[in-house]
Design goal:
Length: 365
């Protein structure tokens, strides 16, 4: 009995060290297991959160597309009423004495309303992408973050007030756009004879000249950027859009100001310009169907050599241009609208807007 006891006494430190080592290893193993479990739980939570966020975003984009299509009939009606070519064509059927003057008016009105239709449809697509992804981001925060006792970011009345600001594009903004476009069309095509023959390439050049005047102005300092037609930039005008007298006014004004800030970013201008290029390209492709190009010839703007193969007198081009609004502003998904909705830059821009306003950092603002 003395021998084992003596052995233990002689090697006491070794046994203590071994015990500490084994016990420490056990505790370290348990700690590692707990940390691994916490990491896995965190990863799973983040994955579920991201999946829920992605699903909400994709649902929001479908809402954007449906909203665009639902608003196009109102936009088309507003353009047709204010740029009325139907009354002019009816007058021409009566063979009036001033037929030449009516044809001249019809020339300006027809081109103006198709150009306005392209601009306003592109603007509607991009503006709704901004608005619905801002409000969608806030709704995601309202639904996903525990905000017990906190005022929601986007209650229904705020959503209604905020989204009603789209009426500027359909009202004052559209009126101003029509005035500017009509003047640009008059400057470019006012002196052009109805007997003059134009090819698609020459028609494209006329449209580019009109666009340059609309987007760069007429040499006046008072020229307004395209974003003005979407939302007025004057602070008092933004405040005037918030017409209620309750505590939600500040929230609505915050959303409007955030939207205005977004419309002034280089990314927004790039996306809008991309839409306009695609829109006017599709418009010309639609026109190409009436120029009877030889079979197999591409009609894209990129195939510029083929755009000068066929010419039509301006008098024949006018009715074709006049009818394009029904394709551009069609509530039934047309190639024109689908082209705009499927542009990659539009999708990426929408994702960036949603990401910004659905981020938990918004809670700190």
């Amino acid at each position: 009995m003395l021998s084992p006891w003596s052995y233990l006494k002689r090697h006491k430190k070794k046994f203590l060290f071994a015990g500490v080592l084994v016990g420490g290893g056990y505790l370290l193993s348990k700690y590692a297991q707990r940390k691994l479990q916490e990491f896995q739980e965190k990863e799973a939570t983040e994955y579920i959160t991201q999946a829920r966020r992605q699903y909400h975003f994709e649902s929001n984009q479908r809402t954007c597309n449906m909203t665009v299509l639902s608003m196009l009939p109102s936009l088309k009606e507003a353009i047709i009423i204010r740029l009325d070519s139907e009354s002019l064509t009816s007058l021409l059927k009566t063979r009036p004495a001033n037929k030449f003057e009516i044809w001249e008016d019809l020339k300006i009105i027809s081109f103006a309303r198709s150009v306005v239709a392209v601009y306003s449809t592109c603007m509607l697509v991009v503006l709704l992408r901004v608005q619905l992804n801002i409000i969608g981001g806030y709704l995601y925060l309202d639904n996903s973050v525990n905000k017990t006792g906190m005022v929601p970011f986007a209650p229904p009345e705020v959503q209604q007030q905020y989204l009603s600001s789209i009426q500027h594009l359909l009202g004052d903004g559209l009126n101003e756009l029509m005035t500017v476009v009509k003047k640009a069309v008059q400057d470019v095509m006012g002196g052009m004879s109805l007997k003059q023959h134009l090819s698609l390439q020459e028609l494209d050049q006329q449209l580019e000249s009109i666009r340059q005047r609309v987007e760069e102005g007429f040499g006046k300092a008072s020229h307004k950027p395209l974003s003005w037609y979407l939302m007025p930039d004057e602070e008092n005008t933004l405040e005037a859009q918030v017409c209620g007298s309750n505590g939600n006014d500040d929230m609505t004004l915050k959303l409007l100001n955030e939207t205005r800030d977004m419309l002034e970013t280089p990314d927004f201008n790039m996306v809008l310009n991309t839409c306009l290029r695609r829109g006017f390209s599709r418009f010309l492709d639609n026109m190409a169907e009436f120029f009877h190009l030889p079979q197999g010839c591409p009609t894209s703007l990129e195939a510029s050599g083929n755009l000068s193969l066929e010419r039509l007198p301006l008098a024949k081009i006018i009715p074709i241009v006049n009818g394009q609004i029904h394709s551009i502003c069609s509530e039934i998904p047309s190639h024109f609208v689908q082209d705009l909705l499927l542009i990659d830059q539009v999708k990426k821009f929408a994702a960036n807007v949603y990401e910004t306003f659905s981020s938990p950092q918004e809670l700190q603002k």
